[in-house]
Amino acid sequence: MSAVIEVQHLNKSFGDLVAVEDVSFTVEEGEIFGIVGPRGSGKTTIVECLEGLRAHDSGSIQVLGRDPRQERAEVTRRIADRLQDGRLPDRLAVAEALTLYGSFYRDPADWRELMAALGLTTSSRTREGAGTSSSRHRLSVAFADVGRPQVAVLDGLTTGQDPRSRRETWAAVESVRASGVTILLVTPFRAEAEQLCDRVALMDRGRLTVTGPPAR
């Protein structure tokens, strides 16, 4: 396997606050790689730098062989994200939103087939706020996958879910990986990392403490 994400000696500060300090890791093609740690440990800052949303102070980042800050448009076409607390406009129907999101990509997936595979209703009138917490979270996976990305970034995917809904969302994530997508999963939940991830990077107060299989 080849690395699709390479992070070397990444540093990012906000004034006197050191958010990320000397973090290095790689994500291999086809795996589910987890960034795991409590709130405030630097997980989302790393993701924002990976996606070119935020400039890092020093170090290097390569996503699919490209610098996400210098070549953001090309990287954006190849990755999909579900950032923490991301939501659709309240009045936008799911079908409308999926069609719109798909139009941003060169070869979008058929959103009806995608929703069916995730066990979701294909009614064109359905809105994001309708249904259970589980269906809304699985719907966010559909948005991450509609552009046929090479990499999907899922941040805080099951926050607020009950155990049953969380298991249903995990199954949706595994189905996305089975389609050939490399997944970067950002989570504070140990059980989620153990269930889904091939490897994890454990973060604590901005530093990476260990990288390896969940059992380690």
TrEMBL record:
Keyword Nucleotide-binding: yes
UniProtKB keywords: Antibiotic resistance, ATP-binding, Nucleotide-binding, Transport
The keyword Signal is annotated on this UniProt entry: no
Record GO terms (molecular function): ATP binding
Location(s) in or outside the cell: Cell membrane
Membrane topology listed for this record: Peripheral membrane protein
Pfam families in the record: ABC_tran (PF00005)
ABC transporter domain sequence ranges: 5-216
UniProt xrefs under CDD domains: ABC_DR_subfamily_A
Name by which UniProt lists this protein: ABC transporter ATP-binding protein
Species of origin: Winogradskya humida
